[in-house]
Design a protein that fits this description.
The protein is mainly α and 197 residues long. It is 68% helix and 0% strand. It contains 9 helices and no strands. Helix 1 crosses helix 2, helix 2 crosses helix 4 and helix 6 (113-128) packs across helix 7.
């Protein structure tokens, strides 16, 4: 279980990533999406991240190294908010969930096992409870409201967590980053005729 100090550090790092995501998605949504098109922990991801950092130097937190998963989450949150209202807010059918997972499977298959686990959990949550996902992603990072919204999301997406509220060793900021990316990808899947963006 992370210590309080670790959680605060992760929270600050994620807040910086949110700020970076808002900035880069305003400057160039296409460049922001280029990172999200890569496989996590891949060479392509490292190259895209470097290019993104060089392009948007003014967006960065200045000497503060952000976790790549958080950068992906921060960009995803910003893009998700821009596409909000274009996707369905009804729970997906099992067929649609299977189609979404199939569309995403090649992207996450080469990722590290933790990435795959968090990605699969996040995909399940957002596709089963898109309205609760919206409430969660509009909560403030690290707030009691965020935890309440996360617990509501997990309760609304029955079958995704086997009744567990949180992975015991998961700092909330990491879980949020994966949920943010899954939410953005689910929205683009719903609006893009089965293609994820």
């Amino acid at each position: 279980m992370p210590t309080f100090v670790e959680d605060v550090g992760y929270q600050r790092n994620y807040e910086q990533a949110q700020s970076f995501g808002r900035c880069i998605s305003t400057i160039s949504g296409n460049r922001a999406r280029s990172l999200l098109r890569t496989q996590p922990n891949s060479n392509a991801e490292r190259i895209a991240l470097g290019q993104l950092g060089a392009f948007a130097m003014g967006c960065g937190p200045g000497g503060y190294r952000l976790f790549t998963a958080f950068v992906r989450g921060g960009i995803s949150e910003a893009l998700y908010r821009r596409t909000l209202g274009t996707g369905s807010t009804s729970p997906a059918t099992p067929t649609r969930v299977a189609q979404f997972r199939a569309a995403e499977s090649s992207r996450v298959a080469p990722a590290l096992s933790d990435d795959r686990s968090y990605t699969m959990l996040a995909q399940c949550l957002v596709s089963h409870a898109p309205q609760a996902t919206k409430g969660y992603l509009f909560s403030t990072v690290g707030s009691p409201g965020e935890l309440a919204a996360l617990n509501f999301l997990i309760g609304a997406a029955t079958g995704c967590t086997d009744g567990k509220l949180l992975p015991a060793d998961a700092p909330r900021a990491f879980l949020r980053s994966y949920i943010a990316e899954a939410a953005y990808r689910w929205t683009t899947f719903e609006t893009g005729n089965g293609q994820t963006g």
